[in-house]
Amino acid sequence: MTESNIIMKCKAYDKAAFKELVRVYSPGLMSVCKRYMGNKYDAEDMLQETFIKVFQNIMTYEETGSFRAWLNKIAATTCLKEIRKNYLIADLEIDEMEADMGADYIVLNDETGIMKIIEELQMPYRLVFNLFVIEGFSHQEISLLLGVGESTSRTQLSRARKMIKELVLKYNVQLIA
Hints:
The protein has 177 residues and is mostly helical. The chain contains 8 helices and 2 strands; from the N terminus they run H-H-H-H-E-H-H-H-H-E. The chain has helices at 3-11, 15-37, 40-57, 67-86, 111-119, 123-134, 139-146, 150-170, and strands spanning 107-108, 174-175. The longest helix has 23 residues, at 15-37. It is elongated, with a radius of gyration of 18 Å.
């Protein structure tokens, strides 16, 4: 089934089309959810919530932009709402990272290796890094999404990048093309 076929049939509430939508887009959306949630179990919950929202809002998709981008935005927004409920993201300075790191060797040859590094970041830093670097939001958009100042967004991105560099050195990361 083509993407436009899936969309058209989903708008007609065809159960088989919904099933196909889940089958085709679950892996990519799971990656988005894992980037935000930091672990598989919370990401799975957010993936389910994402599909519920997609099914509730499929009629609002206007087929003018990328369907995948529309789905990714729903997933990111769903994760951010959950994070806001469970974590305090303050517009304050945050203490430097003091996490007990596990392995001492990571290979960055695919998304899994990169995710291991990003998952090590504390929540505010990981959120800003994901939103800016991976999702392409501006600092102004991030400040509105997270309820922090633009300068806080910039600071947290800078710190996230510094932490990633430190983690790459700590884990003796091997970059494989």
